[in-house]
Amino acid sequence: MRGSLSPKQSHISTARRLRDDIIPRARKLLRLLVLYTILIALCGFVLLPVSWMLTAALKPDNVPFYSIPPHWFPTEHFEWRNFETALLDPVRPFLRFTLNTLIIFGGNVVGTIFSCTLVAYAFARLRFRGSGFLFNVLIVTMLIPWQSQMIPQFLLFLELGWYGTYLPLIVPSFAGNAFFIFLIRQYMRTFPRDLDEAAKIDGCSYFGIFRFIILPLCRPVLAVVVVFMFLSSWGDLLGPLIYLNNTDQFTIAIGLANFATRYSPNTNLLMAANLVMMIPPILVFFFAQEQLIGGIASVGLKG
Amino acid sequence: MHAVKQSRLTGRMQLNRTLGTMERREERIAYLFLLPWLIGLVVFIIGPVIASLLISLTDWNLLTPPNWVGLKNYEKMFADRDFYNSLRVTFRFVIMSLPIYTVVSLTLALLLNQRIRGMYFFRTVLFMPSVIAGTAVAVLWSILLNPDVGVVNQVLGAFGVANPPRWLASRDWAIPAVILMGLWGVGGGVIIYLAGLQNIPPHLYEAATIDGANSSQKLRFVTLPMLTPSIFFQLITGLVGAFQVFDVAYVLAGRGGTRASALQFYLLNVYEEGFQNGRFGYASALSWALVVIATVVILITFRTSERWVYYESEEDKA
Asked: For position B315, what pLDDT does the model report?
């Protein structure tokens, strides 16, 4: 349009260009500038504490931990031995704690995948009397605060002689988790019914249909479940705190909480241990970002 | 003729019967598939919920056989300073944190919904802390918030704040400090709002543009109403979460002193009464009180939701 202006009109076009072209462009540029400034500042708010922590974790014992002004980036000291100390210290062996946490997580993966897929399959694809009612019960159990079950569960496991073992932290997962059942069931409902019918005509049993047709299709939602489970097992503090009483069995969350509260710690080692706790979830986040974000978003939209 | 009809009829009846047995078979198998969950429902949920009510009427302490004490635990609760303090701390946290988290994560979602270069990078960075465990966040920020030499107060000082807050060392600033830690991991909520934003049908914005709406009017009359279901969802999960704050409180209040009472969150008090002092009867009563209080608060929130939450599907039905 502007290109079609004839040369005669060019003397008034300067003012018009200022109005139609330059001012909007300048405003757009200003808007971008403001946006990027805010976004970069926010990234600083997220990343600078982590970078400061790494710097502090790499300081040797004889260097003051706090400095004025703060050292934001690891440029001077590289005491990588601090990580070794944090991981292998006989008083607080964080490597051991990490392995223990992974054992519990592994048990939970087996239990949850086993139980939740079976139950979700029944809710998603089988017809039975009481299915609507039981599904409502499932939803309600998601809303019952866990505190109302915490103490009797503890007393039950104590009676069973499971105190001081990983069993109370693993066995309940074999009974399913309402939230994961819900998530998997929603996913299983999206497959066409013909799938089951065709297999049934071919003489496939219900379990066969579940095992060889439905389950392989569920891989994406199971990936979401495993990522969520990793984050919750890794971070769980209250469960291990209640059931474990021996340093050899401690998880990383108890190890870190004790390190921060009970001893007057070498703060550089505390920061190293804290990084040991933070890095695996961050790695999981980078590798499973899509599953994680997709999972959270789908939960939010259904809510 | 008659015989043929008869046989066809019995044939159909037989078909019905076989369908019936097939259905019954499907039903039996369905319950078999449900079995792990049904057992768990009884053993880990229904049983314990009933048991916890009964235990709350005893003085169970693991050392001596439990005695029936009736409502004594509940009477004791109303005279217990720790109970009132933990309730006050929890409610202060709820009232201060929910509006802040809602506004901040909504604003962030609007910001991250802009189509500009490098947005993937910014989203990745800003979502990252939301996966970090509460314990680790608390440990990191308790160091950053050191009132005298901590990084946060040094930065505030650089911006000219003469008397920066004493954060965890102060009665009034301990909870804001916890909220600040939560803001660091606010990305999880942002994801939900972002999904909500991207679910708003574009034709609504087109219609608003035709009607001559400017961008702030679009925000006020299209975006926000369409996001109310997400806001409501976040409000409910935020409430449930606020009544269950534990990790942060355990790490920060662990050393006693001012912090211990300023950050005595409800669940921390239950944990201490039950698992540290061994008063399982009393701790059960405390848990029940929490369940009742949380349920009431959440029900009230649900009630108000009818007035401000907008569900598109309902509108379609009407």
From this structure: 46
Helix, strand and coil in chain A, % to nearest 5:
75, 0, 25
Residue A149: its chain B contacts at CB < 8 A? 44-45, 48-49, 52
Asked if omega into A7 is within 30° of 0 (cis), the reply is no
Task: Specify the DSSP element, H or E, that contains A292.
Answer: helix A289-302
* Partner B contacted by A184 (CB < 8 A): no
Cα A176 from Cα B43, distance rounded (Å): 12
Are the beta carbons of A35 and B29 separated by less than 8 Å?
no
Task: Give the distance, in angstroms, between the CA of residue A30 and the centroid of all CA atoms in the same chain.
Answer: 37
CB B143 within 8 A of CB A271: yes
> What interface predicted TM-score (ipTM) does this complex get?
0.88
The predicted model gives B206-216 an average pLDDT of: 91
Distance of alpha carbon B8 from alpha carbon A175, whole angstroms: 48
CB distance A46–B192 less than 8 Å? no
- A131 at the B interface (CB within 8 A)? yes
pLDDT tens across A133-151, in order? 999 999 989 888 777 889 9
Predicted local distance difference test score (pLDDT) of residue A177: 93
Q: Does A101 touch chain B (CB under 8 A)?
A: no
Average pLDDT over residues A230-244: 94
Neighbours of A143 (CB within 10 A): 12
A41: contact with B, CB 8 A cutoff: no
Per DSSP, the residues of B154-219 read HHHHHTT-SS---GGGSTTTHHHHHHHHHHHTTHHHHHHHHHHHHTS-HHHHHHHHHTT--HHHHI
- Residue in A155, A253, A293 closest to B191 by CB: A293
pLDDT at B210 over 60: yes
Contact A37, B111 (CB under 8 A): no
Give the residue on A whose Cα is nearest the Cα of B245.
Answer: A238
Average pLDDT over residues B276-303: 92
Structure tokens at B260: 């211990």
If one counts every other C-beta atom within 10 angstroms of the C-beta of residue B78, the result is 9
pLDDT tens digits for B98-109?
999 999 999 999
Chain B residues closer than 8 Å to A137 by CB? 41
Instruction: Check A267 against B143: CB less than 8 A apart.
Output: yes
Q: How far apart are CA B254 and CA B252, in angstroms?
A: 6
Contact at 8 Å (CB) between B53 and B288?
Answer: yes
The residues with which A276 forms a beta bridge, in sequence order, are: none
> Which residue among A68, A210, A237 sits closest to B154, beta carbon to beta carbon?
A68
Interface A-B, measured as beta-carbon pairs within 8 A, has a size of 264
Q: Please determine, for residue A4, whether its predicted confidence score (pLDDT) is greater than 80.
A: no
Token code pair at residue B255: 């050393």
pLDDT tens digit string along A88-137? 988 889 999 999 999 999 999 999 999 999 999 999 999 999 999 999 99
Tell me the C-alpha distance between B222 and B215, whole Å: 10
Nearest to B255 among A134, A261, A270 (CB): A261
**Interface contact B135-A152, CB threshold 8 A:** no
d(CA B292, CA B271): 18
Q: What is the pLDDT of residues A18-76, one digit of tens each?
A: 778 888 889 889 999 999 999 999 999 999 999 999 999 999 988 888 888 888 999 88
What is the pLDDT at residue B129?
94
